[in-house]
Design brief:
CATH topology of the largest domain: Heat Shock Protein 90
Order of helices and strands: HHHHHHHEHEEHEEHEE
Number of domains: 2
Strand content: 5-15%
Low-confidence stretches: 109-127, 129-150, 336-343
CATH architecture of the largest domain: 2-Layer Sandwich
Radius of gyration: 41 Å
CATH superfamily of the largest domain: Histidine kinase-like ATPase, C-terminal domain
Strand order of the largest sheet: 2-4-5-7-6
Number of helices: 10
């Protein structure tokens, strides 16, 4: 699943990248037409010239060939194979070849110089004629050969090609970084899911062991109530098996699970134990991670109940908008002060789950007093 998502992201980025290149080159090939149209609209004496358009397209073709060589051959040398020196050398060779090609197809190299006009000298205007003739002489042109590469046009071509390849490399590195970020996110998500699943698998045996101990105690006290507790246990097991593996579960189902658990625990204790579950009759259609609250309730029954003295467990669950306020308060028998709920497996796991599920977006407040132990939990709900 992770590999499929990564391949999908790579294909999508490849498509986006080449759509950008296609639009860029379409705009570049249309620019000569737009340029001559704007000049003609501003000056009616300018005549449309296909020679000018074709010459501009020849230049653009050289640029697109340079771009294609860099995009498909040279850029992977740097980005994938990390061969920096080979990439740099080939880029310089490609730029020099581009400069020679552009210089060779420049119109000024294929056109002959216009012949100078002759003026007849009279006695009174010979000097003026010579001056006019010298003004009409075209500037000397660079002859073909290696030295022609040092003209301003070729310098512009060199830096233009450098800019084009830099842009190409920048776009590729941008999409490459997006793929890397996506891959890191997928890895972290996969690791998070595995860690959460591991924590839930640790909680389930812990939960069932405590529940079976309660049923075992009921067998000796009241066999009939023990039979009824097995029915309640089957409801709990059904929820754990079918809902426990889900990422989210409806709030109403989690509340019903707590009700079944409290009902099971109530069968074991006598009238000296006060058990209160305060939940609104109407609950919102919100979602939360399963088996997140039962650990606090389980620890309250395990550590807060005494058969010899009066004890209590008070559970409250109140939704407020997109938040859930949960509290669990229980008595603290003196004989269990040293083993209260600070370091149990269940509580340590639920703390880690909260850190993973709601990083920086939850509040867990545990207060230990002389005779009471109180847990307040504030978590977000998912609609």
């Amino acid at each position: 699943m992770y590999t499929f998502a990564l391949l999908k992201t790579t294909k999508m980025n490849y498509r986006k990248e080449h759509i950008i290149y296609t639009l860029m080159w379409i705009a570049l090939y249309l620019s000569p037409l737009m340029g001559i149209y704007m000049r003609m609209s501003g000056n009616p004496h300018i005549v449309f010239s296909w020679d000018e358009i074709i010459n501009a397209w020849e230049f653009n073709t050289v640029w697109i060939v340079l771009f294609a060589i860099h995009n498909f051959l040279l850029a992977p040398l740097l980005i994938i194979k990390r061969r920096t020196w080979l990439y740099t050398a080939l880029v310089v060779v490609l730029l020099v070849a581009t400069m020679f090609t552009l210089s060779a197809i420049r119109p000024s190299h294929s056109k002959k110089r216009p012949a100078p006009q002759r003026y007849e000298c009279c006695e009174h205007n010979c000097m003026n004629a010579e001056m006019m003739a010298s003004k009409q002489q075209p500037p000397p042109m660079r002859e073909g050969g290696p030295l022609m590469m040092f003209g301003p046009g070729e310098v512009v071509a060199f830096f233009g090609g450098l800019l084009l390849m830099g842009m190409n490399l920048g776009v590729k590195l941008y999409f490459r970084s997006q793929e890397a970020t996506k891959a890191i996110t997928q890895i972290e998500k996969h690791a998070l899911e595995r860690q959460l699943q591991y924590l839930k698998y640790q909680v389930n045996p812990h939960f069932f062991m405590n529940t079976l101990n309660n049923i075992h105690a009921l067998v000796d006290i009241d066999p009939e109530r023990a039979k009824a507790s097995i029915v309640e246990l089957s409801k709990l097991m059904r929820y754990v098996l079918y809902e426990g593996n889900n990422r989210l579960t409806p709030l109403s189902r989690e509340v019903q699970f707590l009700r079944n658990y409290v009902q099971l625990m109530s069968m074991r204790y006598s009238g000296n134990v006060s058990i209160c579950l305060d939940v609104p009759e109407v609950l919102p259609d919100s979602m939360l991670p399963p088996l997140l609250l039962v650990i606090f309730v389980e620890n309250a029954f395990k550590h807060g109940i005494s058969y010899r003295t009066k004890s209590f467990v008070e559970i409250s669950l109140q939704p407020h908008g997109d938040r859930l306020l949960f509290s669990c308060r229980n008595s603290r028998p003196e004989i269990k002060h040293d083993e209260n709920m600070k370091g149990g497996v269940g509580l340590s796991n639920v703390r880690r789950r909260l850190d993973l599920l709601f990083p920086g977006n939850y509040t867990l407040d545990i207060k230990e007093q002389e005779d009471t132990y109180t847990v307040h939990l504030d978590i977000p709900l998912t609609n």
